[in-house]
Amino acid sequence: MTSPLRLCVRRRPAAGGEGPDVVVSVSVPSDVGCIEEAVALVARHCFAGVAVEERMRFRLQVALSEALANAILRGNHEDADKRASVRVELAPDAIRVHVTDEGAGFDPHAVPEPLGPDGIQGAGGRGLFLIRKLADAVEFNDRGNSICMTLRRR
Amino acid sequence: MAFTQSRQQNGVVVVRSDGQLIVGNRHELKELIQGALAAGDRRFVLDFSHTGYIDSSGLGALVTVARQVRELGGELRLAGLNDDLRSLFELTKLDSLFSIADSPAQALAGF
C-alpha cells in the first residue's frame, strides 16, 4: 500500500541566500490514523544527519501531533476531501512548524486553560495548552486556521 | 503501535503500551480496559516503558479509563514514564490525579 502522505523537501543552495536552510512540506489527509506516520516522517527529515537533543525531538513530536489532530478533527472535521498541510522550516537556531487546515478557523484566545478542577478531570481540552507549553512561541494567522510553532534549539 | 495485556498471579492486569498513545489509537486502549472491566478485572498497571510520546487525546483517554476503573471500586496505576512523558502529566497537573510509579515492579508492589 502506498502512503497517503505527500512529502517535499527543499534545501537552500550552500552558497548564500536568505531564509531557512531546509523546508520540509507534508500534505496529510484528514484521517487521524495518518498522524503518527506524518509526525515520524517530519521528525526523520528534521533531524537527519544532525545531533539531536532528545527533548527537542519529543517537543516536536507532541506539538506536531496536537496541531495535526486539531487541524483534522476541528478544522477539517475529518472531511476526506480536505487535507492538512505541514511546512517545517529548519534553521540553525530554531525549527518553525506551520500546520494549516481548510476549515473556517477559530479564536485561539477563546480556548480556556484546562487546569481548573473540571479541566483536570475532563477528557479533552489540553491540546492547545500543551502546544503552548512545549513550543517557545506560538502564533496563528488572522483566520485562525494556521498555527506556527517555533522550537528553539538549546 | 500495540497494547499488550498480561495478568499477574495476584490478578493485576498489566497493559504495556508500545509506540505512541495518541488520537489515532486511544480507542484501542479504552476498549482494552473496558473489556477487562467487563470481565471482572479491577486493578491495572499501565506500563509506558516502551512509549515514545503521548498526546492530549491519549491523556484524555487515561483520564476516562481511570474514572471508569475508580467508579467500579478499582485502581489504575501508571508506570515507566521517562522524564519527557512525566513532564506532560506535570504540565497538565494530571500527576495529581494518577498514582505514578517509576517501574511496573514498583507499581505492582503492594497492589
Please tell me about this protein's structure.
The complex is a heterodimer of chains A (154) and B (111). With 154 residues, chain A is α+β, with helices and mostly antiparallel strands. Chain A has a single domain (6-152), classed as 2-Layer Sandwich (Heat Shock Protein 90). Chain A has four helices and six strands, in the order ββααββααββ. Chain A has helices at residues 35-46, 54-75, 117-121, 127-134; strands spanning 6-11, 22-29, 83-90, 94-100, 137-140, 146-152. In chain A, strands 1-2-3-4-6-5 form a six-stranded antiparallel beta sheet, with helices on one face. In chain A, helix 1 packs antiparallel against helix 2 and helix 2 packs antiparallel against helix 4. The mean pLDDT of chain A is 90. Chain B is α/β, with parallel strands linked by helices. Chain B has a single domain (2-104), classed as STAS domain (Transcription Regulator spoIIAA), CATH 3.30.750. In chain B, 39% of the residues lie in helices and 29% in strands. In chain B, strands 1, 2, 3, 4, 5 and 6 form a six-stranded mixed beta sheet that branches. The longest helix of chain B has 16 residues, at 56-71. The radius of gyration of chain B is 13 Å and the shape is globular. Classes of the chains: A alpha+beta (154), B alpha/beta (111). The A-B interface holds A 32-36, 54-55, 58, 61-62, 65-66, 69, 73, 114-115, 120-127, 129-130, 133 and B 1, 19-20, 22-25, 52-57, 59-61, 63-64, 67, 84, 88, 91-94, 96-97.
CATH topology of chain A: Heat Shock Protein 90
- The CATH class label of chain A is Alpha Beta
Q: Whole-number average pLDDT of chain A?
A: 90
Averaged pLDDT of chain B:
95
Report the end-to-end length of chain A measured between terminal Cα atoms: 39 Å
What is the CATH level 1 assignment of chain B? Alpha Beta
Number of helices of chain B: 4
CATH topology of chain B: Transcription Regulator spoIIAA
Task: Let me know the CATH homologous superfamily of chain A.
Answer: Histidine kinase-like ATPase, C-terminal domain
User: Which sheet architecture does the biggest sheet of chain A show?
Assistant: 6 strands, antiparallel
SSE string of chain B = EEHEEHEHEH
Extended strand count of chain A = 6
CATH architecture call of chain A:
2-Layer Sandwich
Query: Which residues of chain A sit in consecutive blocks of at least 5 with pLDDT less than 50?
Result: none
Order of helices and strands of chain A: EEHHEEHHEE
Q: How would you describe the shape of chain A?
A: globular
- Give the fraction of residues assigned to helices of chain B: 25-40%
**Going by CATH, what is the homologous superfamily of chain B?**
STAS domain
